[in-house]
Amino acid sequence: MESKIARRAFSVVLTGLLLAAGAGPSHGQDASFLPAPELEARLERALGEAGRHAVLPPAAPPGDGRYADLRGEEIHRDLARLTEFSLESRRSGQPIWGRVMGTPAERRAAEWVRDRFRALGLEQVELTPVPLEPQWTLREVGLTLRAGEGDSSVPLASAMAGYGSPSTPPEGIEAPLVYVGLGTPADLRDRDLKGKIALVHSRALAGASFHTGESAVSRIVAAGDAVGVIVMVDQPGNAQVLTRNGPDGPKLPNLSVGFLDGTYLRKAIEHAPADAPARVRMRIRAERVEGLASVAVSAMLPGQGDEVLGFQAHLDGYWQAVTDNGGGVATVLALARHYAARPKHERRRSLLFLVTGGHENGSVGASHFARHHRELLARTTLVLELEHVASTLVSGTIGGHYQPTSIEAPVGIFVTNRSPAVLSALRAASEHYAIPVNQDHLPFYWGDIIGLMPTGVPCAGWIGSNFYYHSSLDSLEAVRPRSLERIARATASVVDALDAMDRKALEAGSTPFVMPKTYEGADKELMSPLRVLLEFTRSLW
Description:
Aminopeptidase; 3 domains; elongated; single chain; Glucose Oxidase, domain 1; about 550 residues
């Protein structure tokens, strides 16, 4: 696993390293001006010369044996089965593949989760279709660099249309390529973009989904002269990523490329003679599809009293969707199995297990469940979310490349009502089970659970933003069984700590979240704190 991720996660290293490995071209040539497959092969050869070794991640502490049935290997097997639905989508030829909302892959995965809940003996198991607004659906995407006279060209395999991009003409758009740096106002000042395709270097902020190129695309669209935009995402490697652009972005055909393909395009501009600038042909075919539906799967495990405690994770995602959010779903399944095996008298509260689709376009599955289960949520003391958990931390090295580490990427702890009891339980669990966490907790709704916000139900949990987020690197190699085991046992310990308290104790010192009336929808409101921070950060670029 270590070496496979390392091969796919390279940044461009120093030319000297390539030459030292005997892989560089002759003197005077640009060692980094190679198509991505060749450059990756040479970088891997260089790393092989340097040597590598595997470091086992730390094991989960033994605890008191109460959570011994929460085994990482078993959770990982469920995750692998869930991932198969994504791979079936890829084999069917979908350009944007995965458990994408509204697709057969999402529906089949939801049916599998429903059947697992039933097999565990859970009650009130429901799979509810959730109608969707017309969905932007990509049918075809391609990008080639003209490599000389005639029809000779080099295809860029990482090319992926930006979400919501308009289509090009059927034959595509061919135009000179111009590099505009980060696309800041300073970069664009006095630039002649008329009839050209702009190449933007975008800084990935919180994974590929949030990036500085959003603002840059909007500026280029506003200028009105360019015919297309290519966003070079600076996540190391050459992964496909699905970028989302600002409100003006979809008005112009735009796509993204991985770091190595983007570097290759930039080098093509640098090496092209002044009288024959580099040219690219981009092709995007997309349409709005009506009549699609997402899903919401729910189940109950009765307890002694009328109160409810819930678990939530979203099912849909792009590519293999392992860290986003197959790991969360597999952990919820493990917790359902764990608590279903306990006698009813050990559960003070009934347990709700909620797995929702439609996250990637407004958390519509969670919102639909909230609208139709208000009475249930009124009896719910807390819903715990697991999102982007247990992903392996990837770190840059002195050698200029990226390697997976022996620990997980940090996650954030959030508690919407600032309950001291809930926050203390999460902190204690993270310390005991060695869960890396950010130091400040977040006092508002995060992730797919934002769909529950209008009901006012208190929510808490773990959420991270990692190296693999919204990229084709988000594979089974990104999550280790032991990491899943630790987060599952930590979450169970939180539940048991809270289940020992009555509702009054859980709410002591809390400050209920109040949704400002100025916001119309849950998706707009719940993302607003994050958006404020990201928009401020992007303003720097």
